[in-house]
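Two proteins were folded this term; both appear here.
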Amino acid sequence: MTVVARPALYTMFARGLRRRGAAFRRVARRLPPANPAERLLPDPQRMARPLYAQVNLAALRANLARARAQAPGTQVLAVVKANAYGHGLARVLPALEDADGLALVEPEAAYDLRERRYTRRILMLEGFFAERELPEFAQRRLATVVHDMEQVRMLETAVLPRPLEVFVKVNTGMNRLGFRPSEVAAACTRLSSSPSVAALRLMMHFARADEDDGIAEPMKVFDGACRGLPYPRSLANSAGIFRFPEVGGDIVRPGIMLYGATPFAYDTADMLGLKPVMTLRSTLVGVQELKANESVGYGAAYTASRPHRVGVIACGYADGYPRHAPNGTPVLVCGRKVRMAGRPSMDMVTVDLTDVPEARVGSPVVLWGEGLPVDDVASAAATVGYELLCAVAPRVPFVTSEVGSVDLEL
């Protein structure tokens, strides 16, 4: 694994990139590190604490290519909300050069991208929140979702420096944002007549695209609501992309799949051909010899039924590891799967080392990522991989690699 400081990282990105990627190089040079700690940590050997998150840009590129292959002939908007699902937008942007644009929620992040000369489409997935935002959206050429009649009214009354690209969102059963099917035609008529609107697109968001019967009914609702409307359509999220023959559309929006996690309950990321982008790594910082009936950690949540060793890992809930992860949650030590033994605390977790007799202080640990899917850890902790990736705490340093796989002994 090569861990690089900022100047070397951006020099590396510049080498060999095609002319098409010139705008991305300009953006990358201007974006600050997504985590301030990264500036202080040119290699893991200098880390005062052995916990860090590795971001594999080669894996991200491969996952983006997988999205394109699944939805041929479409435009791809890479979803980078929540700081690229916790990976760091500045950090991953150079690996998204083959995307046709980005989709996110946070206006400040979109403004920052434009300040740094990102020129492709940026779609604001929740739209604008107040009429006063519209001039800046227009000035910065942001595409916006419109999902209710009040937003239509704001656009009709706004005086803008240039018109906006608008994605009209249809509520097909999610019942969060979106026009009711009976409102869609009227909304499109009003928007198409507004000087504030340059172009219209139609979109929806599946509530259950990961379930066998989760496509047909929403598609029926969408098709009925949009019948006769001649605008490009954006339908597929990550789950929808893997069911593209059923979904179709002109613009797809891959999210969690880009980061190597599965959008499905039963199809693993590996089954889908996805590679983990983030690997949360640490080492054993202590080893204890338990006797039968001795307990570990707060609340004595684990009690040994026999003599065995437990390893103490530098990672806890203050780092973003789920405090509610139960005994038995998987962890890799020396590349072999072991089980959580005891309640996660603020700075440490403990694991049963019975199956890894060679483990010692300093042995390598993977909390999730390469060799241990984040979805497996999330399932054990009764949550989803999305949450774990987004929850990595600011105190965890990030390092970036340009490799296809990583030796677990590093």
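Next, the second protein.
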Amino acid sequence: MGDEQIKRLRAIEEENPRQKMALADLAMDSQIIEECSRVKTAPASIERA
């Protein structure tokens, strides 16, 4: 491997954890939004019963 390839590999290795953390944050945001939408619709369905 050349010096440039090694530098690029190290840069990618440093970037990878940040991207994984960003993806985890987005997944958690999505779960929170989904849960909030379920909570808002739950009382209406309970009242109809």
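The mean pLDDT is 87. The two ends are 68 Å apart (CA to CA). These notes refer to the second protein only.
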